[in-house]
């Protein structure tokens, strides 16, 4: 009986083992199924229908859905904490910039927002039209989109502020915006970095009501003065050719991750390992001659590579010594403009114009050259450059840095970049034809490629200050 039981057990175990090894052999012979993996990176592209319409012509559209959707969001979010925080933050930035000005800073000690009201409605948008769509044919990416529309506001927004002025006096001002109407340009661009801007194409129609009080008494004499200041602010800050280059909130600044962060996997700290990085795309690079080579270097660090961000560095262009021989009339045929960038600690002058067939032209001086030395003397102002050239006898030596000819396409005066202590900057274009902007898009003034402008425009909030400086021509 025992032998029969053992035989039965051994037979069952044998059958199970035979089935196990048979099935294992079958599964080993069958190919392993690997689920398809999505590609690590695919470049963006325009849909075919939209790509065909990118070259125009463009017609005006009503876009009433924008007004209705905006009205719904406004009625639901006007009193929300998110909107209140955004309004207070923006007002603080504007007043901080206002107090840092030399004139107002001497008169005003502090500005406090006593009350504000966002108005009864949002501005109404009409006659929306695409002015320009620019694409990079090589990368098939949109590099610039410019849209124009009519803006009409009658929401009666109000702001009341208290200002502490000199000698311990106080001034209260209440400003109510009754009407704002004008043609607006909205622009998105990837040059020199991804940003957006909005400005009036010409001075808008502005109707305001001002109620000033000085030491608790109504002072009607200040009404006209304050109205002029507000109109001038809109004209100088938000009317073409002046506009602010902005990043937030649409394109937030990317912050480097702290190096103190410790990573864990299954409750085990990752202290050593190998990181593989695939560089999928490099766009908006300088075009270099065929004889040159371009290299891409990646690093893991929380510190910025400032030398790579500088506009003027040996990596971006060669340094040249050019000898200019004056003619019999003691003329050289070269004009300069000052270039300043406090953020990048750059202070020099740049060649803004070279007269054809002049001594400077024959010596090889080109428009856009950055001048650092004249006769081995450091030069940072136009007046000093003019003095050194005038005192030189017969000839003088310019030490310049030059980008490749395909890098700079300057069609107008070189801009002078200035930045105030708040970090805000503003762009001003030179001698625009504002009338032509009403009927369509007018090409931008001096067009600079990305590498040439990136140090001048790097700012989260945008606001580059460009001011025109008189030329000096020999």
From TrEMBL:
SMART domains: PDZ (SM00228)
BP terms from Gene Ontology: lipid transport; mitochondrial calcium ion homeostasis; mitochondrion-endoplasmic reticulum membrane tethering
Coiled coil region boundaries: none
GO CC entries: membrane; mitochondria-associated endoplasmic reticulum membrane contact site; mitochondrion
Region (Disordered): 454-474
Domain SMP-LTD: 59-249
Keyword Nucleus: no
Transmembrane segments: 6-27
Keywords: Lipid transport, Lipid-binding, Membrane, Transmembrane, Transmembrane helix, Transport
Cellular compartment(s): Membrane
GO molecular function, one term: lipid binding
Keyword Mitochondrion included in the entry's annotation: no
One of the Pfam families matching this protein, by short name: PDZD8_N
Matching Gene3D superfamilies: 2.30.42.10
PROSITE patterns: PDZ, SMP
Domain (PDZ) ranges: 321-404
Name the record gives this protein: PDZ domain-containing protein 8-like
